[in-house]
Design brief:
Layout: E1 9-13, H1 16-27, H2 31-34, E2 35-39, E3 45-50, E4 53-71, E5 77-90, H3 106-114, H4 129-133, H5 140-152
Parallel strand pairs: 1-5
Antiparallel strand pairs: 2-3, 3-4, 4-5
Length: 153
């Protein structure tokens, strides 16, 4: 039996000028020769090469899962996959400060994971959606104390 490739889907966010170049190459069906994505060892950093320009990219987690669909006749849609990550490209060359999560103490482990979370959705109305819709929940001790106080009142 042949080995099956696992397909991971993610969004590619480019600066406006490069996004227009990618749109044109999709229409001309030359994208495969012009665009290359090379991931680093931590699988969170990448370099995106578009023609002769090299962009630095960071793979971030989206706040919600997006379903992608395919169609052949524009009437029937088939689910192709789930998108839960986005590759954000930038022209400036940032020093990548990626550290292995195993080498970090437990207190800094959550902070390191938070750096790879995207707080916004993919459309303007969903700006800061992670802060607005997914608020922190109160610990059980606090909620139990509040209910006990309501009983006595």
């Amino acid at each position: 039996m042949a080995d099956l490739e696992i397909e991971d889907e993610f969004l590619l966010r480019l600066p406006p000028q490069q996004a227009e170049t990618v749109r044109e190459s999709i229409q001309q069906d030359t994208l495969q020769e012009r665009l290359q994505v090379q991931f680093y060892g931590d699988m969170r950093g990448a370099s995106v090469k578009l023609d002769d320009l090299v962009l630095q990219a960071k793979l971030v987690d989206l706040p919600c899962i997006i379903e992608s669909c395919k169609t052949l006749d524009k009437k029937t849609f088939y689910k192709a996959g789930d998108i839960c990550q986005m590759l954000v490209c930038s022209e400036e060359d940032k020093e990548d400060q990626t550290v292995s999560l195993d080498s970090l103490p437990l207190t800094r482990h959550k902070e390191a994971l938070k750096r790879h979370q995207w707080n916004h959705g993919i459309t303007p109305p969903l700006k800061n959606v992670r802060k607005r819709r997914f608020r922190r929940t109160a610990p059980k001790k606090v909620t139990m104390a509040i209910t006990n106080m309501e009983i006595f009142v």
